[in-house]
């Protein structure tokens, strides 16, 4: 009998070969709160179900509804999932989406917004390799947090490291959820006590020496849509 694990996971990325990268949120929370600074934040690569239900597969049997849920996953979603393990290979046994936060990646962007440039300038003045700042709406309400990180010398590629999980992005999201749970540019984007659904943008400027992670408090707000429009990202 294959060993299994059950937990809450963030979808970090959906790779071109169909592999889904998951981050264990229990480990991420422990790291973000300081309960376990050495928590394992390495992503779990999970094999998706076969697209053709009639095609034989070595993976576990799952029902059609679960298979459809898995195929609908997007980077940023939070799921409650049961995983089956065959040595170091993981596959879904069950999957339920509990939060529709989105992570979107944009490489080679130009025309970077002013607050990101100011935040990087402040980092340079302070002699730091990273910095963060809260952004505000025209009504002076907080609507996001921008992080800037110095690009690294080759062979390191910080943008790709965020995408693959080599450099964890989840602690940044956890920090925003802990300190800005009900903030937003147009009101709440979630019901009850559930964390708000964020829009997370990982931007790799073509002509700047830093990478940007911009966490907008409301996925469906005007600010998030403006960022998507500006950098050619699809609507969600």
From TrEMBL:
This is Uncharacterized protein. InterPro entries: DUF6663 (IPR046604). It comes from Halonotius roseus. It holds the Pfam family DUF6663. It comes from the Archaea. The lineage of its organism: Archaea, Methanobacteriati, Methanobacteriota, Stenosarchaea group, Halobacteria.
């Amino acid at each position: 009998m294959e060993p299994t694990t059950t937990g809450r996971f963030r979808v970090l990325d959906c790779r071109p070969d169909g592999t889904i990268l998951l981050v264990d949120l229990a480990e991420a929370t422990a790291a973000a709160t300081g309960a376990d600074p050495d928590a394992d934040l390495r992503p779990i690569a999970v094999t998706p179900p076969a697209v053709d239900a009639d095609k034989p597969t070595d993976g576990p049997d799952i029902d059609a509804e679960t298979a459809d849920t898995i195929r609908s996953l997007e980077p940023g979603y939070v799921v409650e999932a049961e995983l089956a393990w065959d040595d170091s290979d993981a596959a879904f046994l069950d999957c339920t989406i509990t939060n529709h936060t989105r992570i979107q990646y944009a490489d080679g962007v130009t025309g970077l917004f002013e607050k990101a440039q100011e935040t990087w300038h402040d980092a340079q003045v302070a002699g730091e390799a990273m910095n963060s700042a809260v952004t505000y709406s025209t009504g002076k309400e907080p609507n996001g947090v921008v992080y800037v990180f110095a690009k690294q010398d080759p062979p390191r590629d910080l943008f790709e490291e965020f995408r693959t999980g080599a450099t964890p992005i989840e602690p940044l999201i956890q920090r925003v959820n802990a300190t800005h749970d009900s903030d937003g540019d147009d009101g709440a984007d979630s019901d009850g006590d559930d964390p708000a659904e964020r829009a997370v943008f990982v931007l790799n400027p073509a002509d700047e020496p830093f990478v940007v992670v911009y966490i907008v408090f409301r996925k469906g707000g005007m600010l998030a849509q403006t960022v998507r429009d500006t950098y050619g990202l699809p609507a969600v």
